[in-house]
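Retro notes (design track)

What went well: tokenization of the new backbones is finally stable.
What didn't: we kept losing track of which sequence belonged to which structure.
Fix going forward: every design gets posted as structure first, then sequence, in one message. First example under the new rule, 215 residues:
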């Protein structure tokens, strides 16, 4: 199988979910960078590292080899974006291009994503996350305002959605050279704020534009 790689842009960190680097986990979980009050640093940091380790274990089990997440100082960290990439193993007799044709025919969100090195199709799904779930999880970590910059008087109107973009990427002539990239973000916003989907789509498209195959 051809190997693949992705350039890590400025303000992002890379993990191998099979063996995550402890220093990178500590950086991602940094309570100082997340604005947590000093007395809570140890508890919050430990809880976040535990969550990151669980996430990595789950992604590794599903076959992911590369994970990208923003540094806590990156403004995008408010949306908790996670990009994971792993190889696709097709069943015997499965024609990858036929799968892509079916995907584009049956999923209204499917769109051919232009890559110089491969063919790719992007799909998108959005689901609503109950605000109570997010508030409860944030409270356990000592975070009182999951909306970040959203004022407390507007929290009752807060909408939270989970935006997921899936990219199926491969070389038509090589069934062993196919990869799935899953890009997820959890977005808090108010009803009068713009739909985040177009900006997230552009963000993930730009990040995956550095995708490359290596011999």
């Amino acid at each position: 199988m051809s190997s693949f790689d992705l350039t890590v842009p400025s303000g992002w960190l890379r993990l191998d979910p099979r063996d995550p680097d402890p220093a990178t986990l500590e950086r991602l979980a940094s309570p100082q960078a997340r604005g947590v009050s000093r007395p809570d640093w140890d508890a919050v940091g430990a809880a976040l590292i535990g969550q990151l380790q669980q996430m990595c274990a789950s992604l590794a089990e599903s076959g992911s080899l590369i994970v990208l997440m923003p540094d806590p100082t990156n403004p995008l960290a408010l949306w908790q974006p996670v990009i994971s990439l792993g190889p696709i193993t097709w069943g015997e007799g499965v024609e990858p291009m036929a799968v892509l044709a079916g995907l584009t025919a049956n999923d209204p969100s499917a769109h051919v994503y232009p890559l110089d090195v491969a063919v790719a199709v992007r799909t998108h799904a959005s689901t609503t996350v109950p605000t109570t779930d997010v508030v409860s999880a944030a409270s356990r970590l000592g975070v009182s305002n999951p909306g970040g910059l959203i004022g407390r008087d507007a929290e009752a109107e807060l909408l939270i959605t989970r935006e997921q973009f899936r990219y199926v990427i491969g070389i038509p002539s090589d069934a062993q050279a196919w990869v799935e990239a899953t890009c997820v973000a959890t977005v808090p916003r108010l009803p009068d704020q713009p739909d985040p989907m177009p900006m997230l789509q552009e963000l993930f498209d730009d990040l995956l534009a550095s995708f490359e195959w290596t011999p």
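Added context from the reviewer: Residues 3-214 form one domain.
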